[in-house]
Amino acid sequence: MCTALTLQTEDGYTLFGRNMDLEYTFNQAVQLIPRNYAYKNHITNEDCQTKYAILGMGILLGDEKHPTLADGVNEKGLACAGLNFPDYIKYEPSAVEGKNNIAPYDVIFWILGNFS
């Protein structure tokens, strides 16, 4: 199981931290994703682009080296982490019309790339 925490300093800064309490490695490395990074949505096959630069920890997926993140922070200071809580999630089996369909491994990437 993984753990995350936030702390607020007396002068109003927020600090974010997390651990990766896993017994294995998945060849993770630091990922630096530039602002306006073009990528393909693997669910809808649409061409997409980030608004913000991201610094995080993750892997490059597949032949196209698609960035997937375990955690990260964007240029606006928004931070996000994927915590490991087995058996506490449900995925839709297929895309849902009228919704923003995102692969589970892209949620952190999508949030940090598009929101401040």
β-strand amount: 35-45%
Mean pLDDT: 91
Number of strands: 8
Q: What are the segments in which pLDDT stays under 50 over at least 5 consecutive residues?
A: none
Largest sheet: 4 strands, antiparallel
Shape: globular
Helical region count?
1
Major sheet: arrangement of strands:
3-6-7-8
Order of helices and strands: EEEEEEEEH
- Structural class of the helix and strand makeup? mainly beta
The rounded distance between the terminal residues' Cα atoms is: 28 Å
Radius of gyration: 15 Å
Query: Helical percent range?
Result: under 10%
List keywords for this structure.
116 residues, mainly beta, four-stranded antiparallel sheet, two-stranded antiparallel ribbon, 8 strands
Architecture overview:
This protein has 116 residues and is mostly beta strands. It has 1 helix and 8 strands; from the N terminus they run ββββββββα. 7% of the residues lie in helices and 37% in strands. The protein has a 4-stranded antiparallel β-sheet with strand order 3-6-7-8.
Give the helices and strands, then pairings.
Elements: E1 3-8, E2 14-19, E3 29-33, E4 38-40, E5 47-49, E6 54-61, E7 66-74, E8 79-81, H1 107-114
Antiparallel strand pairs: 1-2, 3-6, 4-5, 6-7, 7-8
